[in-house]
Amino acid sequence: MDIEALRKQYLAELKAETAGAAPPATSEKVAQYAASDKRDDGKLCEMLASLSLDKENYAASVRTLLDILANGAIGAIARLAALRQLGSAEFHAVRFAPFHAEYIALLRRLAQDADKDVRAAVLERLTLTNDSEAQKLLREGLENVRKALVPAAKAVQLLARDDHGSGMPIFRELAAKAKGRVREQALRALASDPRSAALFERIAADKDEKTPIREIAALNLKNASAPRFAKLARKLALDDDDDDRLRAAAVSAITHTGEVAARLATSRFGNALKSVADSTRSRALKSSIRRFAKTHLG
Amino acid sequence: MNVEIKFPSYDAQQRTYVTWRPVEVKLRLLAPPPGVANVAVTVSAKSLSPGGKLRFAKTLTHLGTPTLNLNLPTSGAPVSVWVGGEFQAPSSKYGDVTMEVRTNPGNQLVGTQPTMVRVRKNAEALSTFERDRFLAALATLNGSGSGPYKNFRDMHVGGAPDAEAHGGPGFLPWHRAYLLDFERELQNINAEVTLPYWRFDKAARNLFSRSFIGLPNFFGQVQFNAGHPLLGWVAVSSVGIQRGNGVGPTTVPALNSEAQTLQPGGTLHPNYASFRDMQFNPHGSAHMSHGGGWITNPATAPRDPLFYMLHCNVDRLWAKWQWAAKVHNPTDPKAFTPAAGFPAGHRLNDALWPWCGPLAPPRPTTAPGGGLAASPITAVPGVSPKIRDMIDYLGTVSPNHQAFAYDDVPFQN
Amino acid sequence: MTMPKADRVIAEIRKLPRTDRGDRRLAAMLGQGAGHFDGLSTGDAERVRGHILAAFGEDRSSECALPAIREELRTSLSPIVLAGAARAARSLRAIDEEVRGLLLAASERIALRDEYVRFDGAPGQTAREEIAAALAARPRACCAGGAAKAADPVRFSLPPAAIERAAVEDQAGERTALAELLRRRTSLVAFFYTRCMNPAKCSLTITRLAGIAREYEERDLNLLGFSYDGAYDTPARLLAYGRDRGFPFGEHARLIRCRTGWSGVRAAFRLRVGYGQATVNDHARELFLVRPDFGAVGLDPEALADRAAIEAYLQAIAA
């Protein structure tokens, strides 16, 4: 192959694709359009997506983005596009630093915005950095101290991002008493709670529970207590009467968790699994067992 | 009579790996026939189908050929042959291509060496076998309780560490080292694995599926098929992966395409100083294209395994621009930015943190994870790379290569 | 509506009189293990701490808070804590070169993540603006003299009963009685936990302890990293944490967790650590030398970066 010819061909392809392409939108044009009476939010989104964040334009662009995000008169779809672009800008922390304090203050204010999508997106961003004001709003929503800003299951998920948070008692209660998605998220939220190991064991072993819930409980147990998970996973894997999806998850977790595999990777367990592989009709279980054997039994 | 084939390096299993970049292999006659000064041989490769292909030359060049005739002295003195993968013909597993030495004439097989043309591939194009092998290594690394997933409390907390990774022109070299460290950790688990890339300017139906990197549900909780290796994924102290719904199997994210990244407005970026603005678009835009979840924030993004594939594509774009613009020499001012005006950690001769160890404030005072993982195949970039070491990754102008390459970025000297 | 605990504590802080007695009460409130921090998230604990520190900054001198001001300026990543520390620093008799340097370092540390902070309900300044105001503050005219000297190391004896009751486990899963471990030889004990969010605290502590352990391999000295979070810090987690920080595990160098008797250990060492609903919510950096007879001395945690200081402490405790 002629590599130089390939390079020239590649350059020609690049040229063909990009020649004559519209230049990036400038912050002035975006700001003007956002302020105009004839503004179309879809068009504004397109302009925002092509807004230049190059060094020369960075400060002006971020200023424009903050103004659009803050402006409740602009449609949520465009404000959310501005929020996404601000997210891109955040990836250069040094350039973003002069705007950071204002940005966080704005997000905290918008956590109670009239638009539910803006609220959800803003709380999503704030909780990624464990913002205590956002956490307080979410917690108060779950405790019915204020009107919930996002659905309860989402609030649990967002609150649980901070493993130094204060939601654990709420999560424990919801994992025990709530239903559906709220319970599922609450159970996930307990993943690092050593005190919930017994709850995980009970749910994971309870065949009356739904498989996805048992799967979450089993995998949480792996995180909370590897020795207890090893016992549970062995039992699940070898129980022909149990759900194949759950058994496959157990075998997979054994295979890829060093601390658990160290307890179970014996030829006796391997042989027992081999019998399971021979008899089961589940492709997922067969394939999980094959991976276990390849990784740990050579 | 036999021919000893000696590659520059082998791993503990006595295996050797190549990329597009040729390496110097020594051939030596063992038990030669008496009465002659030389034995004529032909070097070639035998490939499985599908399998990698090799190219051979007498010097370091991208102009290798599928076969090469050589005379091997009966004195036993070694003769060099440069061996590299044939561009666009990578391997999928070890031993799917074997270097062969045959007498010429006679066609008698007198030496063989299996190998693998091991390069980073588009995640979308991986075979099921390659995909599962990668996922298994990923899950095992995650389940080892150590490595990058445990360190990023120190590495991505904002502040000083963030400034090291994202605070200047060192952004691309820093992430190149980070990915290489990560890939080598994976290769310690399974040496055939390479890091695939997510080509984020195209739809990726195979990648964004429950059998590969998972699909988020309504709540942004990533779902996998039964028995998937990543089901038990642990990041910090939670189980599972949170990712927004912005990118599905058919989504083409709204961001700069490869062409727009390399050649905006029809002109190839003339130097690194202008190219590196891709930190925002497409890099930042790719992060944000998911709309929510860990991957949308620098402090949490490495919790999502997709992060490594996203950055692999960012690195591929840099590698491709380097090839297109022919800028591999670290001393070429076009290859990196001038030293003045940038903070420590972002200048050509600066050692990269955390591999260089703890530093004095305002730079990070801890350096979890130690030095950059070693490779049995190459000694570079060493345990404590500098920015300059991460530029000529392929050994285009420098004598060493870093034992990684991209499926669509050739070696050219 | 019940007021959240953190808000309640902040309201109490605001009510405290600015008298000597009120200042002593405020200073006592800074202890991370104090009851008003119990159960709070780290974010709320920081908010409360920031308010306690800021309260010192109103009208009166805050010399009694100086150790806390120094430590927060040296390690905290929290804008509200640093803003509170800066306000407290403003009312010091004089901002000496050390505190000035710490203020500058703190400002640099949060340069990429500055936030507006509010101490009295009104929209406030950013944390870096608060620090800049402290740096620009004039010395208080009313008072003479420099800043208070660092306190001498605290000597005490660990209560044998509490130590005898504690069972510990190291990174290799080896279980032993804490008393037995401490009786083997003099021990340098640093407390930490693997989930610590602040690299300037636990990660740095274990990195530095690892350095000492490497240098002191031949010395008859235990180097112990002791987890605050025994329920979570399993042997596997301790092992990984130490390994990632180059900790040279061995007979003399271990990372340990308590299996039983933690509350006694916490009290015996008088640890300044608070707990939220899930894990530690805040802690001081704490370093001790413990003799085989359980005689102990609390060290300046910065001694981990100062071999001469460690040697001096070792000689002193041997005497």
Tell me the layout of helices and strands.
The complex is a heterotrimer of chains A (298), B (413) and C (319).
Chain A: H1 3-18, H2 27-35, H3 41-49, H4 58-70, H5 76-90, H6 93-110, H7 116-128, H8 132-142, H9 152-159, H10 168-177, H11 180-189, H12 197-205, H13 211-224, H14 226-238, H15 244-256, H16 258-264, H17 267-279, H18 283-296
Chain B: E1 2-6, E2 17-18, E3 23-30, E4 38-47, E5 54-57, E6 68-73, E7 79-85, E8 97-103, E9 109-117, H1 128-142, H2 148-155, H3 160-166, H4 171-189, E10 215-216, E11 222-223, E12 234-235, E13 238-239, H5 258-262, H6 272-275, H7 280-288, H8 306-325
Parallel strand pairs in B: 2-9
Antiparallel strand pairs in B: 1-3, 3-7, 4-6, 4-8, 5-7, 8-9, 10-11, 12-13
Chain C: H1 5-15, H2 20-29, H3 42-56, H4 66-75, H5 79-90, H6 97-109, H7 127-136, E1 154-157, H8 160-165, E2 167-170, E3 175-177, H9 178-183, E4 186-192, H10 199-215, E5 221-227, H11 235-244, E6 253-260, H12 262-268, E7 273-275, E8 280-283, E9 287-290, E10 295-299, H13 307-318
Parallel strand pairs in C: 4-5, 5-6
Antiparallel strand pairs in C: 1-10, 2-3, 2-6, 4-9, 7-8, 9-10
Helix pairs in contact in C: 1-3, 2-3, 3-5, 4-5, 4-6, 5-7, 6-7
**N-to-C series of helices and strands of chain B:** EEEEEEEEEHHHHEEEEHHHH
Net shape of chain C: globular
Q: Give the radius of gyration of chain C.
A: 20 Å
* Poorly predicted regions of chain B: none
The largest pleated sheet of chain B is described as: 5 strands, mixed
* Strand tally of chain C: 10
Helix content of chain C: 40-55%
Strand content of chain C: 15-25%
Which two chains share the most extensive interface?
Answer: A-B, 72 and 75 residues
Helix and strand run of chain C: HHHHHHHEHEEHEHEHEHEEEEH
Question: What's the multimeric state?
Answer: heterotrimer
Q: How many β strands of chain B by DSSP?
A: 13
Taking pLDDT < 50 over at least 5 consecutive residues as the criterion, the unreliable ranges of chain C are 141-148
Shape of chain B: globular
What structural class do the secondary elements of chain B suggest?
Answer: alpha+beta
Radius of gyration of chain B: 22 Å
**What percent of the residues of chain B sit in helical stretches (DSSP H or I)?**
10-25%
